[in-house]
Amino acid sequence: MSVSEQQLQGVEEDLGYRLPGAYRSFLKAAGGCAPVGAALDAELGLLVDQPFFTVREEAGINDLVYVNKCLRDHLTKDYLGVAFVQGGLIALKVRGGGVGSVWFCAYDDARDAGEVAAGWSVNERVERLLLPCGADFDAFLQRLAGNPPELETVANLMVDGGFARAVPVVPVGSELAVVTFAQAQERAEEWINGDLPGYQHREVRVREFELGFVVGGGPRGRSDVGRRASAARDRAGQR
Q1: What are the pLDDT digits (tens) for 123-171?
Q2: Contact between residue 137 and residue 102 where contact means Cβ atoms under 8 Å apart
Q3: Cα-based torsion angle of the residue sequence 29, 30, 32, 34 in order, rounded to the nearest 10 degrees
Q4: pLDDT tens per residue, range 158-167
Q5: Does the predicted TM-score (pTM) go above 0.70?
Q6: Residue 137, Ramachandran bin (φ over 0: left; ψ between -120 and 50: alpha; else beta)
Q7: By three-state DSSP, how is residue 205 classified?
Q8: What CA–CA distance (Å, rounded) separates 40 from 47?
Q9: C-beta neighbour count of 73 within 10 angstroms
Q10: What does the DSSP 8-state code read for residue 83?
Q11: Is 235 helix (H, G, I), strand (E, B) or coil?
Q12: How far is Cα 50 from Cα 106, in angstroms, rounded to an integer?
């Protein structure tokens, strides 16, 4: 999963700037790896449980250069998206002041609502909505708590309270079919949104545990940031 120096130089040529040092080192060492288990930033409530963007030879949903072309409607070119996380998008400042700092774009930001917010430009959204989460990429990684047990406690409470459903994972080799992450997400979409019109859809959230998946939905009528981020992810996946 590591990225070679030659690949990094190719990406930097495509982007038109050199990547910040800490993030550059991360890409060389880990590429698009995901945390073992999950990682939580308790202060911001973001959950890192999927691979970071990486460097690929062809366009793809996890290709650093290509995905950022799909994010231009809600991130300025001063920022580089580096990962989708549960609850939002992680971006790196690559131009202007504070180069190398890490920022969080939340899907369901209460400030991004109403007629006033609907008229904001991309620059205004970035200025008003992004939340700082590290002076550089190393500082961001140090904020994360690896696989905290509280996550499973909360997930069990959500299931017990009827706010989420547990989707079992059948061990490999069993006579029953194994449920993949994609299948769990598909089932969650059906349970949560069903035949509802698009404007009433809720964000589908899937969390994997040792014995299965817990799925739930975000608030009905997601913020515009959430809709645009999901659309960007969908566009990248269709290529």
Answers
A1: 998 999 999 999 999 999 999 888 777 777 877 888 888 877 776 655 5
A2: yes
A3: -160
A4: 888 887 777 6
A5: no
A6: alpha
A7: strand
A8: 5
A9: 11
A10: E
A11: helix
A12: 16
